[in-house]
Amino acid sequence: MFYVGFGQDSHHFVEEGDDKPLVLGGVVIPGERGLKGNSDADVILHAVFNALTQAVGGRSIGYYCDKLCLEDGITDSREYLKIPLQMLAEKRCVINNLGVSLEGRRPRIEPWSDAIKQSLAQLLGIEESQIGLNATSGEKLTAFGRGEGIQAFAIVSLADFRF
Fold first, then answer.
1. pLDDT digits over 43-96, tens only?
2. Whether the predicted pLDDT of 147 surpasses 90
3. 43 vs 1, 103, 136, 145, CA distance in Å?
């Protein structure tokens, strides 16, 4: 048995002068404005969260994490990933592979690709070779392509290890 999940997330950049850091895949990207949101607004981890929960029949990140963020003050999206990983353990599933695609005019992702893949592998308990990561500038065709924010998509395949 195998499962597939697809997740998406997007956020606008904070205003000029706001010192919120940009966090992508659990990695702080220096010299870039962060993304608006109650949490760290890590679009990669939020899209991965949504893909993982979708694959096992769960709900969106807000359903599980709004209370953690708004009431408990937990804003680190790495902490949120514990929820879908527990769901996978309960369903006796393991991650087979993960694909992440970003759309945004900035920052250039390539200099950070290895660090983001290392972070994702560590957080998810998989090998870097099981993760694909790519990005597009969006060619100014959307708000993301015009540099107003970043959009992330994630697709995950899970294997059932009961057999």
1. 999 999 999 999 999 999 999 999 999 899 999 999 999 999 999 999 999 999
2. yes
3. 29, 11, 15, 15
Q: What are the sequence ranges of the domains in the chain?
A: 2-160
Alpha-carbon radius of gyration of the chain: 15
Both tokens assigned to 30: 């220096």
| Gap between the Cα atoms of 144 and 7, Å rounded | 17
* CB-based contact 3:160 (threshold 8 Å): yes
2-160 placed in CATH 3.30.499.10: no
Neighbouring residues of 6: CB distance < 8 A, sequence distance ≥ 6: 50, 51, 54, 153, 154, 155
| Residue 72 identity | D
Mean pLDDT of 92-103: 97
